[in-house]
């Protein structure tokens, strides 16, 4: 079986490395938001060229705290995609603001500036733009189209390592957020995230919010209502080590994705790939579109290839968010993508033989469709 995600192939020495990290933490006696977190924040900020990296417990909390730190709350509207992971919408609601769902482009699955501009109102305070799968939204085009006082918050959970015109995803807008969930491009050994910004005030506010409203200098003195959203030392130590080798993992995943590209291009339109928006992409997931997704899934499963379906139901059609929906007719592309998208195995530890098996299975399916 070719697994969709294969942690052991990705990190074959993980068990030894994790035990060494745990032993060091036990000896030191520090486990939460101490020196390892500070060290990781410094090397992460340097890696992506940002003034601040503030580590938090998850990307979801990072998005929520970023909105709150920016003064966004009740009465404010935040534009966000109708097709993406739930955090983009739930963080807006948790901050007390109103999510305004906008349909995505069918070829990329991300927001485009023209659609966002149509959704602007006097109450719009921010656009929470989500990069998706292997693609980047054109944040530069968004910035040019938006009023200067509208914040751009990048959900870069799946985009670590990607660049747009030479700049790292996560640094393209006013604030960026990364996820270190184990399956993400820079994967941790538990949940984790980071807020990226050049804004000293926002960074300071997020640092305070993540730690019960304390400023990190005076304990048990709470300057504002905060949250328990701290990163642990074990995860931070692991992530430092993984960051040093991340470029190698990224290069391998890009090579696999490009090999898949050739099979998709040769399918005569039976299978459709994602428009990535940049040649410097970070393939968190390789997603194909098929009008016969169920049959494609059965075809691959029969050949020992695991797949995954992402976001089959658009966010505004889900019970948690239906009260903010403008109605299904407003999100035709999100609904189409939810019915057609299928993610293929993509892991830096995949062998050339496994990659070839996936490609041959795709060619078999495409050839059968053409005939």
Automatic annotation (TrEMBL):
CDD domains: AHBA_syn. Gene3D superfamilies: Aspartate Aminotransferase, domain 1 (3.90.1150.10), Type I PLP-dependent aspartate aminotransferase-like (Major domain) (3.40.640.10). The modification N6-(pyridoxal phosphate)lysine is found at residue 184. Its EC number is 2.6.1.-. GO terms for molecular function: pyridoxal phosphate binding; transaminase activity. It is an enzyme of class 2 (transferase). The keyword Transferase applies. The keyword Protein biosynthesis does not apply. SUPFAM superfamilies: PLP-dependent transferases. One of its GO terms (biological process) is polysaccharide biosynthetic process. The active site is at 184 (proton acceptor). It comes from the Bacteria. InterPro entries: DegT/StrS_aminotransferase (IPR000653), PyrdxlP-dep_Trfase (IPR015424), PyrdxlP-dep_Trfase_major (IPR015421), PyrdxlP-dep_Trfase_small (IPR015422). Keywords: Aminotransferase, Pyridoxal phosphate, Transferase. Belongs to the DegT/DnrJ/EryC1 family. This is DegT/DnrJ/EryC1/StrS family aminotransferase.
């Amino acid at each position: 079986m070719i697994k969709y995600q294969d942690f052991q192939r990705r990190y074959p020495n993980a068990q030894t490395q994790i035990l060494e990290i745990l032993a060091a933490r036990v000896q030191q006696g520090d486990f939460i938001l101490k020196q390892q977190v500070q060290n990781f924040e410094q090397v992460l900020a340097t890696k992506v060229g940002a003034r601040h990296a503030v580590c938090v417990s998850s990307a979801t909390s990072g998005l929520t705290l970023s909105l709150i730190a920016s003064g966004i709350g009740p009465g404010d509207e935040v534009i966000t995609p109708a097709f993406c992971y739930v955090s983009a919408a739930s963080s807006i609601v948790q901050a007390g603001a109103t999510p305004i769902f906008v349909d995505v482009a069918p070829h990329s699955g991300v927001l485009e500036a023209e659609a966002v501009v149509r959704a602007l109102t006097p109450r719009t305070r921010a656009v929470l733009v989500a990069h998706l799968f292997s693609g980047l939204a054109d944040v530069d085009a968004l910035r040019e189209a938006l009023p200067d006082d509208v914040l751009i918050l990048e959900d870069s959970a799946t985009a670590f390592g990607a660049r747009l015109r030479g700049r790292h995803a996560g640094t393209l807008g006013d604030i960026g957020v990364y996820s270190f969930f184990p399956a993400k491009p820079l994967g941790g050994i538990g949940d984790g995230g980071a807020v990226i910004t050049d804004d000293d005030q926002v960074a300071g506010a997020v640092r305070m919010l993540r730690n019960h409203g304390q400023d990190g200098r005076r304990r048990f003195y709470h300057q504002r209502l905060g949250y328990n959203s701290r990163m642990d030392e074990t995860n931070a130590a692991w992530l430092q080590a993984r960051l040093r080798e991340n470029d190698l993992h990224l290069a391998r995943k890009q090579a696999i994705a490009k090999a898949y590209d050739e099979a998709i291009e040769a399918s005569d339109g039976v299978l459709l790939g994602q428009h990535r928006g940049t040649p410097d992409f970070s393939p968190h997931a390789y997603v194909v579109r098929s009008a016969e997704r169920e049959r494609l899934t059965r075809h691959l499963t029969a050949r020992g290839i695991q797949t995954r379906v992402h976001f089959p139901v658009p966010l505004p059609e889900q019970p948690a968010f239906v009260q903010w929906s403008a109605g299904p007719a407003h999100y035709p592309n999100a609904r189409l993508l939810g019915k057609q998208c299928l993610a293929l195995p993509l892991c830096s530890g995949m062998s050339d033989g496994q990659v070839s098996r996936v490609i041959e299975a795709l060619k078999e399916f495409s050839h059968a469709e053409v005939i």
